[in-house]
Amino acid sequence: MPAIPIADKATLDAVLAYVDELNTRLTDTRAGKLDLVGTTGDAPGTDSIFARLAQIAGYVDQVEGYVDTLETNLGTTAQDASSSGTALQRLAYIIASMIPQQPQSTYIGSYSTTSTSLQTALSVSGKGVLIGVMIKLANSVDGQYPRLKITLDGTVVLDGRGIYSAGYQGPYFDGFNVVNGTSRAYQSNTSNTPIFIPNLMYPFKTSLLLQALTSNSSNEVTVKWVYGKE
Q: Among 180, 181, 187, which Cα is nearest to 162's?
């Protein structure tokens, strides 16, 4: 049988002294404070350190949920512009819809036709702004009229006709509310004065379409325009 070493009396006395000192220092109050550490099984609350940690962990989970919701609704700058998406998508949509302040190029043009059905006078793809248009018939004939239709991004924004009537000294446009703030804008000098619709400043994001017709194939209609394009 192997020998079992036993400490001498001096060593045992030293250990006993340490135990006595620990017992003296560890009062009931201090022992109670150690109990405040608790265990990992403590429910969330304020009774122990572990209980408090569990409570904090619950708060962190709540905050993470709020952050997830914020990310879902706010979105990211990498998302495409959308009128019904996240906040950043809608912001990008609004910015893209703004009237270009300084179009890269300005275009002036005209188109004439004797067709009594709508003809495409101008078709533009891209982003820009319709600055103004003009429409007129070659001759003043009582009851005959030109018609102009303006479509931006697939939506008709103006569609009206001009009427030459013996009651007026020139043409007036019936149905447009953009000239002189009235539903009818007319000139009072010569009978075939063009009808101008200036300062429209109608923005378009993807497309611009102008269409025109004359009510009588023997009376040519002419459309002129000015637009800016990025």
A: 187
Confidence (pTM): 0.51
Angle at 161 between CA 159 and CA 165, to 5 degrees: 160
**To the nearest 5 percent, what fractions of the chain are helix, strand and coil?**
25, 35, 40
Which structure tokens are listed for 200? 């429209």
Alpha carbon distance 195, 197 (integer Å)? 7
44 by Cβ neighbours in 10 Å (0-12 / 13-18 / 19+) ranks as: middle
For the stretch 11-60, pLDDT in tens is 777 777 777 777 776 666 666 666 777 777 778 877 788 888 888 888 88
* Residue 26: burial class (beta carbons within 10 Å; 0-12, 13-18, 19+): exposed
Distance of alpha carbon 22 from its chain centroid, rounded? 71
What domains are defined for the chain? Answer: 9-97 (no CATH), 105-229 (2.60.120)
C-beta atoms surrounding 130 within 10 Å: 23
